[in-house]
Amino acid sequence: xxxxxxxVLPHEYVSDELRRHVINRxxxxxxxxxxxxxxxxxxxxxxxxxxxxxxxxxxCGSCPTCKxxxxxxxxxxxxxxxxGKVESIKKEKETGPEGMALLMEKWASAFRKNPFLRxxxxxxELKIKNLHLPVANLRYAIEQIHYRQYETLRKAIIIWGxxxxxxxxxxxxxxxxEPPKDKFIILVARNKSNILPTIRSRSIIVTFPPLSEEQLIxxxxxxxxxxxxxxxxxxxxxxxxxxxxxxxxxxxxxIAKGRAIELWNIINQKGPxxxxxxxxxxxxxxxxxxxxxIVKWILTTVDPQFSHLGPKHLRVLSQPQPLKExxxxxxxxxxxxxxxxxxxxxLHYLLNRLHEVYKKYVDN
Length: 364
Prior knowledge:
2 domains
């Protein structure tokens, strides 16, 4: 997503509510955004609060402040994110400036790649099992809230993982109730029930209703580089959440890649393993979406990373004629899947034809 602003994000009701808070020019405040998709809205809201020339309650996108916040570089936009015992940070004092800088560097990189980052994605990035918001991180947040602004008239602190604070969040109660003038605290959480009641009572709460499938498909295809076809196929599994749908697409792709590699491992066989492979390939997430990804991944096997499949395999796929035939078969399979042909039948037919091509050129 190129430019995260309230006017671009699809939850119009939420965006309108947040824009009203910007237009009203509050002196300070604590906000609690609750939902699967809340994270990019917190960022867009903070950008609007700091913008030098907001347009109808949204960041203008062109002032010096907007250019900096867009790159997650502005000193007056502070992130507090959950962490754990991270190997790359253990050598430093995790709660000290150096450790926090390392954490923020990782965070900025991950958020730029996917502004709809989920807890699971962040935990995988840090190579840990369980995320939490340590008390030390919350103390750091309190310090940042009371520091003066560096470049703008306002300061925004985004605390991602308000439902991961535990009882440690009690140290923030006074600050949350009365933030200093021109300071805004934006808490972000997925699960309302895990947030301390004392924190909820001190916040302006904004919740996210699920998007319709049409809204989800339109946003994914226009803003997130997801093909309309793929968006239509997977959207019904995302429960109206962009972040969950993106996670499913990523998982589908990961599964499909593994399935495609396995395909070439069994392509020279025609036995029980063949049908077991087809059955396993059509039981993950959404069978048509998964099979489409498998078919697409078949063509990537000319990459050197698959050299372990053997010289015969690479020899076949490096020749123009068999590669041309394989591409034609793949295109036919994708056409069938787009017309909702049974994925098991499609895979069975495709494997038979690939087997014929493979044997023909290996034996010659």
